[in-house]
Design goal:
The chain has 635 residues and is of the alpha/beta class. It has 26 helices and 19 strands. The chain starts with 21 loop residues before the first helix and ends with a helix. Bound molecules: zinc ion (ZN).
Length: 635
């Protein structure tokens, strides 16, 4: 169905809106499609649960292919309306077009529909340009990737190129091919015409590509506020890498690696490596030396792995960086880890646990007078943040809290924290032995890493202490079974472990480029639910923007699986049931939401994406439907 257009007046007595659009009509006219084929496609379309453009169905049925469609559009030069064309090609939903037209009407400045679509992330600029070149017949040239006639370019003043956003590409027959960011703007075209006094063949290119090429060809041109960086010294490069990583706030590591032909710099941002910048390979030796000077490593040594530390002062902050040099075939790879990033201490209600699950965790876990509470997950899953928020919750004047950590990551007032330091023989074992003699109410053991620390945790809980600790396991049931495998008696485990939390961090959708996302049949297949089972969800995706360095993600959110042990689970443990059986009992009888389900729930709220859930979370069985999940989390 075509949406009514604001400027289109329906003539009275007009036939009702046609069930298909201009492109299909054109294909019918050209004889590339028959009426029977279109009718069959319409029948298929009516049977589909999700809405799919009719043209897409026709393509899938193999009646026509993209090439034929594009050729037909180009040959005919039918004046399509860009919005309708995008809808018909399946690049835009009718709903999005309706919203975009509204935005265009409401906007203070008269923007073109294309700009509205791109600015609001309805469509990717490149896709939009492709379509525009198809629709209007403009040649699509990206100056970044095209051989340019530089002599020709030097003829014009760069200010004109910059202000009208165009660039001559090359001579073509009797005309000059010029790439415009907006090929429909008469002012820009006239500017180009006046400049070359020759016929202009109008091409189209992305604004970004034109501006980047101007920057490259005219390095001394400084338009207005924009500062174009000229060659930097190695000192400046290193400083700017550190400053940018620190200021980003979500970077944990800087990777500087020599490849065969260049130096590649990547930042671990929100847990994922993201390309940051590249430098010419000839800078590698001086760059490496500079960092070695900063961290007091041996500059002369280039064939052995080395470590170092940098205390970097930026603004009024001191940043501690641990540096590692690793010798590879192309030279030394350098990784800098940012140590004391300013992580804030979160309240237990702010760590991202669903309200009903948090209530249960508090009442049946943290508030119990004694017992072991285990937080599990791989490195970098946010376990420490959770443990600290639990400590913070338990911290009051009537409670004695004592910790053995490796190392202490946040200092909390009012509790006795000890950093393990094997270098001075302050070992984990020795510290734990002393801890229990300090008359604590709550003992925090940084991590259970062997049967000795497991034994201490369980014994302390047996004698009436509350024990908080972490563990490296994939999920909550895995935590229980690992304890069993550490030769701790099943009965002891079942009578001391109160609660196990498994957790992960998923990347958040970038708020600056967020756009709606509709689940495709493929997504449902990957999730393991029938199409439509998550229909009420509001799914989102980031299209990618400078704010998120074109990843579509910014920041992270924790997902949890909270198992509060009940009689059924305890019995299952004593009977030494399999992990599969214990998992089933936990899900059926304790109201536990699995990691995957909590992730799915957060994706359905548009906080993270389905891709992120599938990429990062273990899936042991089919998740429940959104409706069932909502009932469990109490909304
Ligand atoms: Zn973004």
């Amino acid at each position: 169905m075509k949406s009514p257009r604001p400027e289109a007046v329906q003539p009275t007595g007009a036939t009702p809106a046609k069930p298909y659009g201009e492109v299909i009509r054109l294909l019918l006219r050209c004889g590339l499609l028959t009426r029977q084929q279109v009718e069959y496609a319409l029948r298929v379309s009516s049977k589909l649960k999700s809405s799919k453009p009719l043209l897409g169905i026709i393509k899938e049925l193999g009646y026509v292919n993209d090439e034929q469609i594009h050729a037909a559009i180009r040959r005919n030069r039918t004046p399509f309306r860009i919005g309708d064309l995008l809808v018909e090609l399946g690049l835009l939903t009718e709903e999005d077009l309706r919203i975009a037209l509204k935005l265009q009407k409401a906007g203070p400045e008269k923007l073109k529909l294309g700009e509205v679509l791109v600015n609001n992330n309805f469509i990717d600029e490149r896709k939009f340009i492709d379509t525009l070149s198809l629709q209007l017949g403009f040649v699509h040239v990206e100056p970044e990737f095209t051989e340019l006639d530089e002599k020709l370019i030097r003829k014009g003043p760069v200010t004109s190129y910059y202000s009208h956003v165009f660039l001559p590409i090359r001579k073509q027959d009797d005309a000059i091919l010029v790439a415009f960011a907006d090929p429909l703007d008469g002012v820009c075209q006239r500017a180009a015409q006046n400049l070359f006094r020759q016929d202009i063949a109008v091409g189209i290119a992305s604004r970004k590509s034109i501006l980047a090429t101007i920057e490259r060809l005219f390095p001394d041109f400084h338009p207005g506020e924009r500062v174009l960086r000229k060659s930097e010294s190695v000192v400046e490069i290193v400083n700017s890498l550190l400053v940018e990583a620190i200021e980003a706030g979500n970077v944990s590591d800087i990777h500087i690696e020599p490849l065969s032909d260049r130096i590649r710099v990547r930042f671990r941002t929100d847990g994922v490596l993201v390309p940051f910048r590249e430098y010419p390979i000839h800078l590698a030796p001086s760059l490496t030396s500079r960092i070695k000077v900063l961290c007091k490593a041996d500059i002369a040594e280039k064939r052995r792995h080395q470590d170092g530390r940098i205390l970097f002062v930026h603004g009024n902050r001191e940043m501690d960086l641990r540096v590692s040099f690793f010798v590879t075939v192309f030279g030394e790879k350098i990784v800098l880890r940012l140590l004391n990033r300013q992580n804030e201490l979160l309240g237990i209600e702010d760590i991202g646990m669903q309200p009903r699950i948090l209530k249960k965790f508090r009442e049946e876990g943290l508030d119990r007078p004694s017992g072991v509470i285990l937080v599990t997950g791989p490195t970098g899953s946010g376990k420490t943040t959770t443990v600290y928020s639990c400590i913070n919750y338990l911290n009051n004047i009537e409670t004695s809290i004592i910790t053995a950590e490796d190392p202490v990551e946040y200092v909390i007032e009012g509790i006795a924290q000890c950093s393990i330091d094997p270098k001075i023989n302050l070992t984990f074992e020795e510290t734990l032995r002393s801890v229990v003699r300090q008359d604590p109410d709550v003992i925090v053991i940084g991590e259970i890493r062997d049967s000795f620390s497991a034994e201490i945790a369980v014994q302390a809980a047996m004698t009436g202490h509350k024990v908080l600790t972490t563990f490296h396991t994939e999920d909550s049931i895995g935590g229980l079974l690992r304890l069993l495998n550490m030769d701790i008696d099943a009965f002891l485990i079942s009578s001391t472990v109160v609660c196990i939390i498994a957790q992960r961090l998923l990347r958040r959708v970038c708020p600056k480029c967020v756009m709606p996302y509709e689940l495709a049949p493929r997504d449902y297949r990957r999730i393991g639910l029938p199409p439509g089972a998550l229909a009420e969800g509001i799914f989102k995706k980031g299209r990618g923007c400078p704010h998120c360095r074109y990843t579509g993600y910014k920041g992270r959110v924790a997902v949890f699986e909270v198992l509060v042990l009940n009689e059924d689970v305890r019995n299952g443990l004593i009977q030494r049931l399999t992990s599969h059986q214990i998992r089933k009992i936990s899900i059926d009888s304790t109201g536990m939401l699995t990691l995957f389900e909590d992730g799915l729930y957060k994706a359905a709220q548009g906080i993270t994406t389905v891709d992120e859930v599938i990429r990062s979370l273990p899936k042991f069985q089919k998740p429940r439907t959104l409706e069932q999940i909502q009932r469990l989390v109490g909304v």
